[in-house]
């Protein structure tokens, strides 16, 4: 595995694991890490020079991974004493959860602000269909009414926030189709995709 590919893999892994948390100060590894032969990589990782790698030593074989984990460690180690205490570890996870909750509230709040047209704090089937079309360019199939009803636990014709969160998490997207034809796409999207109007050429003829 090349250094570049390894760097990309571990960067993506880190980002996916913290996608909803406060930005971690993890920097991308330098892309000009020296390429190592297998023998050089083995020798560098063999800390006690006994010509075998323990699991701990094996974790150091990829420079990009080692750099990312060191930066992550430094982020957890808030007092910079070289170790992560249980208080630092739990504190970091608490901040992650708080930020995750903030982002979720912002995400769902924006959806209701945009698509709850009658401001009843519920998303009816028509509003959900519009949301799927405008946000995801997806078109429900003929069985969508049945799917919608399965998430409408109290059968009041709309998805309240708890019901909509479950819908957002468990909606079977394989039961939706992409909006393929341009005439199916929402007007708001088409408006943004229109080409600029062409100015009418001046008539320079002389009579």
TrEMBL record:
GO terms for cellular component: endoplasmic reticulum. Residues 176-207 are annotated as: Disordered. Keywords: Calcium, Signal. InterPro entries: EF-hand-dom_pair, EF_Hand_1_Ca_BS, EF_hand_dom. It holds the Pfam family EF-hand_5. Residues 191-207 have a biased composition (Basic and acidic residues). GO terms for molecular function: calcium ion binding. It comes from the Eukaryota. Residues 64-99, 139-174 form the EF-hand domain. The keyword Calcium applies. Residues 1-21 form the signal peptide. This is EF-hand domain-containing protein. It comes from Ascaris lumbricoides (Giant roundworm).
């Amino acid at each position: 595995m090349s250094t570049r590919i390894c760097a990309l893999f571990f960067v993506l892994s880190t980002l996916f694991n913290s996608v909803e948390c406060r930005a971690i100060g993890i920097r991308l590894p330098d892309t000009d890490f020296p390429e190592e032969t297998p023998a050089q990589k083995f020798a560098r990782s063999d800390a006690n020079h006994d010509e075998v790698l323990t699991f701990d030593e094996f974790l150091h074989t990829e420079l990009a991974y080692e750099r990312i984990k060191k930066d992550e460690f430094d982020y957890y180690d808030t007092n910079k004493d070289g170790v992560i205490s249980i208080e630092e570890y739990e504190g970091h996870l608490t901040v992650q959860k708080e930020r995750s909750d903030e982002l979720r509230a912002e995400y769902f709040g924006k959806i209701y602000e945009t698509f709850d047209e009658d401001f009843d704090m519920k998303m009816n089937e028509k509003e959900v269909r519009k949301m799927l079309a405008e946000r995801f360019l997806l078109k429900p199939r003929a069985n969508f009414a049945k799917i919608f009803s399965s998430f409408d636990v109290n059968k009041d014709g709309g998805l309240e926030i708890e019901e909509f969160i479950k819908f957002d998490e468990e909606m079977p997207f394989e039961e939706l189709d992409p909006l393929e034809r341009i005439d199916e796409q929402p007007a708001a999207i088409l408006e943004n995709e229109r080409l600029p109007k062409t100015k009418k050429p001046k008539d320079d003829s002389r009579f």
